[in-house]
Amino acid sequence: DIQMTQSPSSLSASVGDRVTISCKASQDIRNCLHWYQQKPGKAPKLLIYDASNLETGVPPRFSGGGSGTDFTFTISSLQSEDAATYYCQQYDNLPLTFGGGTKVEIK
Amino acid sequence: EVQLVESGGGLVQPGRSLRLSCAASGFTFDDHGMHWVRQVPGKGLEWVSGISWNSGRIGYGDSVKGRFTISRDNVKNSLYLQMNSLRVEDMALYYCAKDRGPGISYYFDDWGPGTLVTVSS
Predict the structure, then answer these.
(1) Residues 89-118 of B with CB under 8 A from A
(2) Looking at CA atoms only, how far is residue A98 from chain B in angstroms?
(3) What is the pLDDT of residue B54?
(4) Is B105's CB within 8 Å of A97's CB?
(5) Nearest-CA distance from B37 to chain A in Å?
(6) Does A100 sit within 8 Å of B105, measured CB to CB?
(7) Which helix (H) or strand (E) holds A19?
(8) In angstroms, rounded to a whole number, what is the distance separating the alpha carbons of residues B71 and B51?
(9) Whether B110 contacts B34, CB under 8 Å
(10) Contact A24, A76 (CB under 8 A)
(11) Does residue B106 surpass a pLDDT of 90?
(12) Which of A81, B25, B54, B66 has its CA 20 to 30 A from that of A66?
């Protein structure tokens, strides 16, 4: 199975800050990676697909990059409504696997 | 509007069985693969199982393989998860999720609110 390792597991940042989350795959997954946002009590929501493509309706302050084993997710200017947990997910091989999540808090 | 509504969760003893259902509406059900994803409250996401549009491709997570069975009824627009030999570690919120494509290897673009499964004696 492909292991997905996210870091950090949590972070605290101020409104307007640039935030970057890392996701590392245990083997080459090309660009077969998505990013989701989950707010408390809600189901996850897709933000980025195929490593770098912004889902329709998602604000452009969210972006993704990387390929192979190393990926990044960036919020260019953190907003209060971005407080949530963010997950990466690979689909290169079954079973589909998620990273452990990164909880983003607002200072 | 896409709607996915899970049902069938509840309290069950270890070793017993439970069947989850997901009623789908607002999209062409047999154009899409479907999945079950679970989450222990306060913890991360775990893919449980997926089934392609025509049930031709099915996959399971390692922790449920051999105990859980996914199925779908394209006439009733419904997805199911038969869970046997339940363990305490299966206790979680179970989400039904729609795949963007017809298979089971892309992304989840719609989710239900989830149904809670509690496994306890």
Answers:
(1) 95, 97, 100, 104-109, 111-114
(2) 6
(3) 96
(4) no
(5) 10
(6) no
(7) strand A19-25
(8) 7
(9) no
(10) no
(11) no
(12) A81
Read off the DSSP letter of residue B87: -
pLDDT tens for each residue of A69-80: 999 999 999 999
With the C-alpha atoms ordered A42, B26, A51, B54, is the resulting torsion angle positive or negative? positive
- The residues, any chain, with a CB within 8 Å of residue B94's CB and separated by 6 or more, are B6, B9, B20, B36, B37, B38, B48, B81, B114, B115, B116, B117
Give the pair of three-digit tokens for residue A12: 């605290």
| Rounded distance between C-alpha atoms, residue B78 and residue B6, angstroms | 10
Look at A96 and B45 and tell me if their CB atoms are within 8 Å. no
- Residues A5 and A101: beta-carbon distance below 8 Å: no
Per residue in B30-82, pLDDT tens?
Answer: 999 999 999 999 999 999 999 999 999 999 999 999 999 999 999 999 999 99
From CA B78, how far away is CA A21, in angstroms rounded?
36
User: Which pair of structure tokens corresponds to residue A33?
Assistant: 């990676």
Per-residue pLDDT tens digits for A41-71: 999 999 999 999 999 999 999 999 999 999 9
Catalogue the E-assigned strands of chain B: 3-7, 10-12, 18-25, 34-39, 45-51, 58-60, 68-73, 78-83, 92-99, 108-111, 115-119
The Cα–Cα gap between B27 and B21 comes to 17
Token output for A21: 């989350």
Residues of B in contact with A9 (CB under 8 A): none
Q: Nearest residue of A to residue B111 by CA position? A: A43
